C-alpha cells in the first residue's frame, strides 16, 4: 500500500472498486463497530471507575482489557430462557434488528480521504449516495423497531411498558435530531457525507476591529446551536444516561429487555454500544470536520494525506465517547416528564427558530456566510446552553432544625395525610398523656397537643 496526496472523494469515485476491495471495506466497517464496542465497554468501566475513585476492571488481562471478552463468553454459555407467552420469531429477530441498524449506518461514514490500496485509488468509505445523511436517519429510525418489538414479543407486562416508553422517547428525539441536520444541509448544500466533510475543509478570514483572524470551518462552531441540539438528541436516541429510561432498572426492572438472557441480551447490549460509537462517528462527520486534522496539526502539510486522517477521525470519535461516559458518571437520571418536556418544549422550538434565523441570514446579500454564522451562531449556541442549564425554579429555603422540630406534631412522630390516618397508637396516647395529661379527654380518642 502506498500513500496518496490528500484528495476529497466525490460521488463519482464510488462504484469503481473491485469486488474484493468492497468486501474488505465492509469487513473493516463491521470489525470497527464490534472492536469499538468491546473497547468501549472497557473504556467506560475504567473511566467511571476513575471518576468514582475505584480501580475498575483490572484482573482479566493487562489493565482488565480482556474483561469485556470474558463477559461476552459468559453470556454465550448462560442458559437461554424462552418465555412461554413469547412470540418466538419476533422474540428472536428483535435484538438482531437493533444490531443490524446500528452497524449499517457505518457504511456511509467517511473514515479518510482517497488512498491507494494495492494500486487502486479508492476512498476510505464503503459507499456514498447523494442522500447519505437520510440513510443515517433511516437506520436510526429502524432501531426503534428492535426495541418495541422486543418488549411486545416477550409476552410480559414490564417489557411491554418499557418498549412503549422507549419508542416514545426515541421518536421524540429523532425529530430534534432531524431538524438540527437541516442547518447542515442548508450550509453545505449537499446531503452526501463526503461532500459535507469537504465543505468543512477550509475556513475563511474575518476582520474584527481591524484585525484579520482565521475563522474555523467546522460546523460545530459555525452552527453551534445545531451541534448542541444534535448531541443532546444523540444521547437521548442512544438511551444513554441521563436519558437511560429504557433500561431504568430501578423503575421498570430492566425495561424492554427484562425477559431476555444469554446471547439475545448480549445483542441488545451490543446494539447500544455500537449505536453510541456510530453516532459519535456521525457527529464527527457532520460537525467536527470528519477525518480532517484539527488545528494546530493542520500546520503540517501532510496531516490530511495518506492514512493519517484515520488517526484524527478515531481520536475525535474517542473524545465523543468519553463525553458519553462523562455524562453517565456525572448526571442523575431525569424523570420521564422532564425528559419529554426537554425534547418537545425546549429543543424543538429552539431548533425551529434557529432554522428561521439561518434562512434569514442566507438571504442577506454582500455578507460573508461564514462570518455571519460565527457572529450569530456562537452567541445563539451559548444562549441555548444557558437556557438548558439555567435552573427552572428557585431553590426552597431549608428550615432550621428548631423549625423542623416545631412543625412535627405529636413529638417525634410526623402526621400522615388525612386520607391515610389510622386510629391513634396506644403508645402515642400514653406518651402524650404523660406529657400533657390535662389535654387528654377521658373516654375520647381526640387529643390536643
TrEMBL record:
Transmembrane parts of this sequence? 20-43, 89-111, 131-154, 175-197, 217-236, 265-287, 307-327, 339-361, 373-390
Name the family the entry cites. Belongs to the complex I subunit 1 family.
Q: Where in the cell is it found?
A: Cell membrane; Membrane
Its GO biological process terms? aerobic respiration
Per the record, its GO cellular-component terms are: plasma membrane
What the protein does comes down to: NDH-1 shuttles electrons from NADH, via FMN and iron-sulfur (Fe-S) centers, to quinones in the respiratory chain. The immediate electron acceptor for the enzyme in this species is believed to be ubiquinone. Couples the redox reaction to proton translocation (for every two electrons transferred, four hydrogen ions are translocated across the cytoplasmic membrane), and thus conserves the redox energy in a proton gradient. This subunit may bind ubiquinone.
Q: Which reaction does it catalyse?
A: a quinone + NADH + 5 H(+)(in) = a quinol + NAD(+) + 4 H(+)(out)
GO MF assignments:
NADH dehydrogenase activity; oxidoreductase activity, acting on NAD(P)H, quinone or similar compound as acceptor; quinone binding
**One Pfam short name:** NADHdh
Region (Disordered) residue ranges read 395-422
Subunit structure as annotated in this protein's UniProt entry = NDH-1 is composed of 14 different subunits. Subunits NuoA, H, J, K, L, M, N constitute the membrane sector of the complex.
* Catalytic activity, EC: 7.1.1.-
Per the record's keyword annotation, is tRNA-binding included, yes or no?
no
Membrane topology, from the record: Multi-pass membrane protein
**Would you tell me the protein name for this molecule?**
NADH-quinone oxidoreductase subunit H
NCBIfam families named among the record's database cross-references: PRK06076.1-2, PRK06076.1-4
| Classification via InterPro entries | NADH_UbQ_OxRdtase_su1/FPO (IPR001694), NADH_UbQ_OxRdtase_su1_CS (IPR018086)
Q: Which UniProt keywords apply?
A: Cell membrane, Membrane, NAD, Quinone, Translocase, Transmembrane, Transmembrane helix, Ubiquinone
Q: What is its main location?
A: membrane
Claim: Membrane is one of the keywords in the record:
yes
